[in-house]
Specification:
With 272 residues, this protein is an alpha/beta fold. The protein has helices spanning 2-12, 63-81, 104-107, 122-140, 155-166, 188-196, 216-232, 252-264; strands at 23-29, 36-42, 55-60, 87-92, 143-153, 173-177, 201-211, 235-244. It has an eight-stranded mixed beta sheet, sandwiched between helices.
Length: 272
């Protein structure tokens, strides 16, 4: 009788949604890009009690997927390396990767191709970040504009590479995981050539990764970019490149984020 009462009590309880502590979700309509974006914000520990304190800001693309993993890896790095906890701003592109509503192929690609309808939206997406999202974050949150970082993986890494040669000074750190540099026959290298024609300096901290077991289509453009950056001798470029052993494009993703964030938020840079 007691057992049945316990079952009935459990069945009567109304379940509640799981939430991420110290976090909020906003929907932003971009006039620049003409699209709606989900923005996920996580506050550092003690944020509400630290009036006037400015925090570094970590901007993460593929935010629908990578918001929660970012918080997990930052927690590990805070425990092991005592890194300063940043304000996390993750940008969603309409849904999880692989779902019909996800628009990463639109937002992360710098040029349009017939093979990928709707592509070529990286200039507009960057415009949204620079002209709308960053001003909003720096007006409404305790954000330090001198301590911005950008993280992206795969197509998100292609976007990070595009940003590197378009607006490198927007960020202190640009963290690029396994970038899809072969997209549109390597057109992203044209942006580097155009940048180099006008600049001798590239004043930013850059992390670039590829997995040892990835396909030649991923590894060869990575190698080309590394050789190019080393040969250019850009002034004020702080470059770290890594080939992660025994990982594929898929299995390298979590390792890359942990290494990239650890490298970015330690001084001197921790390499592990």
């Amino acid at each position: 009788m007691i057992f049945l009462s316990l079952i009935n009590a459990a069945q009567a309880q109304k379940p509640s949604l799981v939430t991420v502590p110290n976090s909020e979700h906003r929907v932003m309509q971009s006039k620049v890009a003409g699209h709606t974006y989900d923005v996920y914000v996580h506050f550092p520990v003690g944020y509400a009690q630290a009036a006037g304190k400015k925090y570094p800001v970590l901007y993460v693309v593929d935010g629908d997927n990578d918001f929660s993993p970012t918080l997990e890896y930052l927690g590990l790095l805070m425990a092991e390396y005592h890194i300063p906890e940043p304000l996390v701003v993750a940008i969603g592109d309409g849904g999880l990767i692989g779902t019909p509503t996800n628009k990463r192929n639109r937002d992360f690609t710098p040029t349009a191709t017939t093979a990928m309808p709707g592509s070529g939206g990286a200039p507009a997406f960057l415009g949204f970040i620079e002209q709308e999202l960053m001003p909003f974050v720096e007006k409404n949150y305790q954000a330090d504009p001198a301590q911005r970082s950008l993280y992206g993986y795969s197509m998100g890494g292609l976007f990070g590479t595009y940003v590197l040669f378009q607006k490198p000074t927007l960020f202190r750190n640009i963290l690029i995981g396994s970038p899809a540099l072969g997209y549109d026959k390597g057109k992203v290298f044209d942006f580097e050539s155009a940048y180099h024609a006008k600049h001798t300096a590239l004043p930013v901290h850059v992390f670039i990764e590829v997995g040892e077991l990835e396909t030649p289509g991923q590894k060869e453009p990575y190698q080309k970019l590394v050789r190019l950056l080393e040969a250019r001798h850009y002034q004020n470029l702080d470059l770290h490149t890594v080939v992660i052993e025994k990982v594929t494009h898929l299995t390298g993703k979590p390792v890359t984020m942990l290494k990239a964030l650890g490298w970015a938020y330690t001084s001197p840079h921790a390499i592990f």
